[in-house]
Design goal:
119 residues; alpha+beta; 2 domains; 1 helix; 31% helix; 31% strand
């Protein structure tokens, strides 16, 4: 009978211990996610240049933004002169993009069809 009571106590207490551990881990992960979000910064500026490899852009204020490892900018998606809003996080002194939005397309380069006709 004593053994049955001990087994019953273990069956009741064990799930409480494991549940408490799981809740504590979840809160820690949430705090870490919040910390990562607060490290993110935002910059707005005009694109001065785009690296030929498609892995970096430089704004007219000198800010250099890098794409995350293994990522590249889609060719033609950005052109010099565009106004952009970029979010980034600092990693080892580099500004690594976490988001990029075009605010103003700027002045598009002239195409042959845009030039006045000469007769």
């Amino acid at each position: 009978m004593e053994m049955l009571k001990t087994l019953a106590v273990i069956l009741v207490v064990a799930p409480m211990i494991f549940t408490t551990g799981a809740v504590a881990q979840t809160q820690t992960e949430d705090r870490q996610a919040d910390d990562k979000q607060t490290d993110e910064r935002v910059v707005e500026g005009q694109v001065q240049s785009i690296d030929v490899s498609g892995t970096a852009i430089t704004l007219t204020d000198g800010t250099k933004l890098l794409t995350p490892a293994g990522a590249t900018l889609r060719p033609g998606a950005l052109i010099e002169g565009m106004m952009v809003v970029a979010s980034y996080r600092e990693e080892n002194g580099d500004k690594v993009l976490t988001g990029l939005a075009v605010k103003d397309r700027g002045r598009a380069p002239a195409t042959p069809g845009d030039s006045p006709r000469r007769y």
